[in-house]
Automatic annotation (TrEMBL):
InterPro entries: HicA_mRNA_interferase, HicA_sf. This is Addiction module toxin, HicA family. Keywords: Endonuclease, Hydrolase, Nuclease, RNA-binding, Stress response, Toxin-antitoxin system. Belongs to the HicA mRNA interferase family. GO terms for molecular function: endonuclease activity; hydrolase activity; mRNA binding. The keyword Nuclease applies. The keyword Nuclease applies.
Length: 78
């Protein structure tokens, strides 16, 4: 399994939008951006991304987990 790179919040947001997420306009406040996606089962997934130059690996793993995307799929989006 490949090691996760250090990414900025802007890069993570672009990757999530590429995966089908859209902005949740009433959810993101201050230093965080909220994105959501409704999957094929009708389940709405909400992902909160902190605005930072470098997102720590633990936070990145949490974002990947919240999104419902596998780690491999996320790395392929890079």
């Amino acid at each position: 399994m490949k090691k996760l790179p250090v990414l900025s919040s802007d890069k993570v947001i672009r990757l999530l939008i590429k995966a089908g997420f859209t902005y949740a306009p009433k959810r993101g406040k201050g230093s965080h951006v909220a994105l959501y996606k409704t999957d094929s089962k009708g389940i709405k997934r909400l992902v909160i991304v902190p605005k930072r130059k470098e997102i720590p690996r633990g936070t990145l793993l949490s974002i990947i987990d919240q999104s419902g995307i596998s780690r491999e799929e996320f790395l392929e989006l890079l």
